[in-house]
Amino acid sequence: MSSDSARVDSQKAPEPVGLYPHARRVGNLLFLSGVGPRERGTKKIPGVELDAEGNIVSYDIEAQCHSVFRNVRYILEDAGASWDKLVDVTVYLTDMKKDFPTFNRLWAEYFKDNPPCRTTLEINRLPTPIAIELKCIATIGGE
Ligand SMILES: N/C(=C\C=C\C(=O)O)C(=O)O
């Protein structure tokens, strides 16, 4: 890995599910790895009911949205950035038709009238049994 970026490992966000940091800083930009609605130190996913094989039986998208926004905030804060420094967010939903209206409403509540750029995509499956994952870029420092 190039040494001209600094690794960020959050102590509050959920543990990565593979070999990647929570974020990397390059100059005054902060690139976050994709993060979902999980809780650090537990396999529990807010609002999700799983069967014995770990397949999703049901989930509450509102609980997942609150959780994933909280995790993004944790990573930003542990990196020395903040929520209002987000500039670009890619949103992955596993069920656009069902979950987009709720997600879109909560997004507006979290960002009020100064939101970052956003791209929302539907994908078939995420690496963990979650319904939403965010990929974020923020600015940091240099002010
Ligand atoms: N970023 C990745 C997974 C994140 C999953 C989660 O936070 O639940 C990845 O595998 O690249």
List keywords for this structure.
alpha+beta; 60s Ribosomal Protein L30, Chain: A; 6-stranded mixed sheet; 2 helices; 8 strands; binds the ligand N/C(=C\C=C\C(=O)O)C(=O)O
Largest sheet: 6 strands, mixed
Which spans have pLDDT < 50 for at least 5 consecutive residues? none
* Rounded radius of gyration (Å): 15 Å
Small-molecule binders here are: the ligand N/C(=C\C=C\C(=O)O)C(=O)O
Number of strands: 8
CATH topology: 60s Ribosomal Protein L30, Chain: A
CATH class descriptor name = Alpha Beta
CATH architecture descriptor name: 2-Layer Sandwich
- Give the domain tally: 1
CATH superfamily: RutC-like
* Span of the ends, CA to CA: 27 Å
Number of helices: 2
Which percent range describes the beta-strand content? 25-35%
Average pLDDT works out at: 94
What is the ordering of alpha helices and beta strands? EEEEEHEHEE
The dominant shape is globular
How does this model look, in words?
There is one protein chain. With 143 residues, the chain is an alpha+beta fold. The chain has helices at residues 61-79, 96-111; strands spanning 6-8, 23-26, 29-32, 48-50, 56-59, 86-93, 117-122, 132-139. Strand 6 (86-93), helix 2 (96-111) and strand 7 (117-122) form a beta-alpha-beta unit. The two termini are 27 Å apart. Residues 14, 17-18, 33-36, 38, 127-128, 130, 133 line the site of ligand LQKPKE2M. It is an enzyme of class 3 (hydrolase). Its EC number is 3.5.99.5. One of its GO terms (cellular component) is cytosol. Pfam families: Ribonuc_L-PSP (PF01042).
